[in-house]
Structures are given as C-alpha cells and as structure tokens.
Specification:
Helices cover about 60% and strands about 0% of the residues. With about 100 residues, it is mainly alpha-helical. The protein folds into 2 domains: about 70 residues, no CATH class; about 35 residues, no CATH class. The two termini are about 40 Å apart. Keywords: Heme, Iron, Metal-binding, Monooxygenase, Oxidoreductase.
Length: about 100
C-alpha cells in the first residue's frame, strides 16, 4: 500500500512502522522534518540490517566449520542421513538436524 493510501485510510487499531512514521510526520513535533524519502531510507535501513545480520552469521558459522574438517565431515553425514531420498526439503525438516543445533 502506498504512503498516500495510508494517509487517506483513517484511524487504525494496529499500527506498523510506516503508520508510526506517518503519525510523527503529521504531528511535526520532532526537531527534524520527516519526509517521504527519509521514511523510505529508514525502512531500507531496517531491511538491510536484518539481511546483513543473517548473512554475517552464516558466513561466521561456515568459517568456524572450515577450521575443523571433522566437524564438516560429521555435519555433511548428518545432513545426508536426514534428507536421504527426499526431493524437496521443507523448513520443518531442519528439525531433524540435531547435530547442527547448539543444544
């Protein structure tokens, strides 16, 4: 939904980030002006930060595994055992990978 449509939809009970930014923009109570472009920048920053964090964790985990050939070998073996014969792997199938959990 575009920002313009959100402005015209009236009062809502369940606000999200865009609604809060629009409310602050309309109130004009901040020391800085909130423009449409600054709202877009905030939203992009949030999505970018979430993506960057995930990729950093995966990169770190892979580099730690590369330091230990024994760990890589065992992880591969457990993955092959858990998914042997499956053509499609679903997110729920990941629960079978007990070795990769830090429990």
């Amino acid at each position: 939904m575009s920002i313009e449509k959100r402005l015209n939809r009236g009062k809502i009970d369940d606000e999200d980030l865009v609604d809060v930014l629009l409310r602050l923009q309309q109130a004009g109570s901040l020391d800085i002006e909130i423009t449409t472009n600054s709202m877009k920048a905030v939203i992009w920053d949030i999505f970018g930060a979430g993506t960057d964090t995930s990729s950093t964790v995966i990169e770190w985990a892979m580099s730690e595994m590369m330091k230990s050939p024994r760990v890589i070998k065992k992880a591969r073996s457990k993955i092959r055992q858990a998914f042997k014969g499956k053509k499609d792997i679903q997110e729920t199938d990941l629960e079978e990978l007990h070795y990769l959990n830090c429990d």
